Amino acid sequence: MIGRPNAPVPDLRVSAPETARLVAIVLLAVMMCSASWLFGWPDWVARGLIAVGLTLVAVAFLMALQAKVRLRARAMATDLLTGFIEKDASPSFVADDDGIIHARNAAAGRRFADAEKETLSGTLRAVLANPSAVLFRLQSRARIDGAAQEDVITRRGHVRLAVHQMQGGSFLWRVEDIAERISAGRSVESIPIPMMTVGRTDAVLFMNEAARALIGGRVKSLDRVFVDLPVRSGHINTMTTANGPIQVLVVENTRTQGRNELYFLKTEEDGNTGAGTSFVDLPVPFLKVAPTGEVLSVNKLALGLLGTPNCKDMKLGQLMEGLGRPMSDWLRDTADGLAPNKSEFLRLSRRDKEVFVQVTLSRAVEDGATVLIAVLNDATELKTLEAQFVQSQKMQAIGQLAGGVAHDFNNLLTAISGHCDLLLLRHDQGDQDYGDLIQIHENANRAAALVSQLLAFSRKQTLLPEVLDLRDTLSDLTHLLNRLVGEKVTLTLSHDPVMRSIRADKRQLEQVLMNLVVNARDAMPQGGEIRIETEVVSLDRPIERNRAKVPAGDWVTVKVQDEGVGIDPDKIQKVFEPFYTTKRTGEGTGLGLSTAYGIVKQTGGYIFVDSTKGAGTEFVLYFPVHKAQTETSKSAAPKVDTSAPKHGEGVVLLVEDEAPVRAFASRALRLRGYTVLEAESAEDALRTLEDPGLSVDVFVTDVVMPGMDGPSWVREALKTRPKTRVVFVSGYAEGAFGESEPNVPNSVFLPKPFSLNQLTETVHEQLN
Q1: What average pLDDT does the segment 368-377 reach?
Q2: Nearest partner of 232 among 224, 242, 222, judged by Cα
């Protein structure tokens, strides 16, 4: 072995001159100094030789002095390094570039006493299967970075191999054992349950003492242990041991770095399970169930997952639900061996929160009787993601349905309410048919309100936003809200003294507040207090709630609080779903909160709900603060042109594919004195406009029609008639047309259903 015998550190590489070379230089100097005396050369030659000889002597002296200084420095560095690694508890080696060991400390001598080799690769072969590759990889990184380390999994556990490059080209290596720990903080060796750690290639990396005792020694791969591969987690597998094959229940726990932990619960040939202590401490939720459904035993993790202190005198059907068929059939088929070994997703019967589990049933025999082993796996996150996906698909489908229904329904309502308006023009209040016409008109408006709710849910209704002060809005609404809540309920309003404005549709915002107040009233059948609070909040950072993210900035919040019965935790996530209601049939449509959600989201805000069962519910609405334009014009409103046309002055080209709507609109405009040209399609309208002598003041056109749509034909017509005004009408919402959204100058949008006055006033304003 190379190195000083009394130190674990080798001599550092110091380039010291050879003694023979120093002696040769001195002899050469002596010869040059004495040559002039021996040969009688001239004085100038003798003096030159003497000078050269003395110079060589001085050089030799300096070389010897420098070597002494270097050796002394080497000795000091060696002593420091010796003191550093000699008392290190981890095995340390000093090796050269070729891996030859120059020295080792006492810990290395004790750890690798049986594998003492001249090379580091040969020494570490006792713990590493292929140490050469690991050493080469670390040494290459150390040449670049100066140091490197790597954690290696061995059959004894984790080993951390570290290397530091030293001056002179040597390398300092340290081998450190890292003890594996489980979550409970105990070494896996102390677990009474047999377990082993398996790598990606089914190589057995570790076995605890219980596993070695069960199998009869160490094994290197799973095919030496199990008859059939792959191992089925949660099922009975046949294991080969020194005493013959046995039946074990296997539970697999996935760990990092491609490793899996296998736990074994021994069963006898007749199916008897092992010790109860092992069953209770097993790190996977387990239930032992009778074929009739009674819970026979349960381990600690299963109790925690079920959220109950014990399962005494309880059946499996009382703990979980949602199988889709009788629980007794599933248990009986599994006990008879008729059911396939597939997992079922069930919902636990917990009141505090919603938890889903994946349940795998396996058949076993205990004391001659059949029992079932249920392995539970928490599937709440999986089912939550699945529910979110299904909900998004449902919301999208209902939104598309709402838009399509609204278009066709609004055309019908336009014709019904429009012709009703025409009839009302010919009947006064004393007419016996007047009351019937009013009933038709009011019910048509109710139907229109229902369609508006559908559009609000799908966020496709047309909003008319304006700058609002919530204090004024609530003040105007207070009288109506007090009538809604009744005498048993007290309505209290509280406003922020420094209120800021928002931009929203006042009518729709009032609808949201009324829906929330009505729900709060219904939640307090015995009476109570409903409190509405407004506040201005400034968020320094975004807040995340219920999968929504409220950006940082200034917001106006509206809180609607009640003292009602509250909402169950498992139902609070469904309150904004359309048609979901806890009220009895006939008491609600289930569209109130979904409508409020759609209106708030379309306004650019957020709505959240918090509820405590038996203590009340709080809805919080966030609206962005309206930022006024920096350049506000204080000039007076433009004066109305005194020469503006009056009703009846102008030519209107009406384009509508629905004949009843076209008939009503045509008659309504003619009653106001307008000249109306009708067309049932965009193509007919363009053919009508081919006459250069025809003068048209306003286009009134539907947006969605067979063939060419409204915006397309209007753009074509405006190329030759650029000053013509346009009124777009549609059963869809404004802005819901995608690529065909109207982007036409001098145009307005009139949603269906519209009344006679709305149509004629809109046309008049366009002409004005």
Answers
A1: 82
A2: 222
